[in-house]
Design goal:
Layout: H1 2-26, H2 29-36, H3 40-46, H4 50-77, H5 90-105, H6 107-115, H7 125-148, H8 155-175, H9 179-204
Length: 205
């Protein structure tokens, strides 16, 4: 059993390298198996196909990101909802730094998803995160509109804002390899986004 686990982990490691080097579409299962010192039959013992192999590599990281997002959403809908229009970006900055730390801990996997997953089910991963954030903002703005007695921003604004926030992380991850520098840069970015968020409600009011 331990030998099977070691073989599976070896295949995943060489696959990760292959995907990062060549991208999902051009990655070769034969090349992965050769580097791992196993037959293609051994690979198919563990994984159904190339996409299943990619899923084994990235799914835990994606799950971790989603859990962190949901934790932030729960706080924002709950105890922090009253402060969401106060202009204080400290909680959002704290959450952004936590998420960035997680992303940089799994930097190769995140970079694979963002830049090398074309042709797989993960090529729309950015849009998937945008949609998750947009659904959260739809709920949050419903709540805030009732509590504050002001109209909620329209759907396009929520969609655009969601894109802006996700792309802020994407741009940092692609262009800034050092976590310390990314963390420093995220503070003014989040402060800017929070100010725009508050401004949209004030304008509507």
């Amino acid at each position: 059993m331990s030998d099977e686990k070691a073989t599976r982990e070896k295949l995943m490691e060489y696959a990760r390298q292959e995907f990062l080097e060549k991208g999902y579409m051009k990655a070769s299962l034969r090349s992965i198996c050769k580097k791992a010192g196993v037959t293609t039959g051994a690979l198919y013992f563990f994984f159904q196909n190339k996409e299943d192999l990619l899923s084994a590599i990235v799914d835990d990281t994606i799950k971790g990101i989603m859990e962190m997002m949901q934790d932030h959403f729960s706080r924002e809908i709950g105890t922090d909802a009253q402060m969401a229009l106060g202009g204080d970006a400290s909680e959002d900055i704290r959450s952004a730094k936590e998420i960035l730390h997680y992303l940089y801990q799994h930097y190769d996997i995140v970079l694979l998803l963002l830049t090398k997953s074309q042709g797989s089910v993960y090529e729309t991963i950015v849009d998937q995160f945008v949609n998750i954030l947009e659904r959260h903002y739809d709920k949050l703005t419903d709540l805030l509109s009732v509590k504050k007695g002001i109209p909620k921003p329209d759907h396009y604004f929520l969609h655009w804002t969601s894109h802006m926030q996700i792309e802020a992380f994407v741009h940092l991850l692609i262009h800034v390899k050092e976590e310390e520098k990314a963390v420093k840069n995220i503070e003014p970015i989040v402060a800017y986004l929070v100010a725009g968020w508050v401004g949209a409600f004030v304008r509507k009011g």
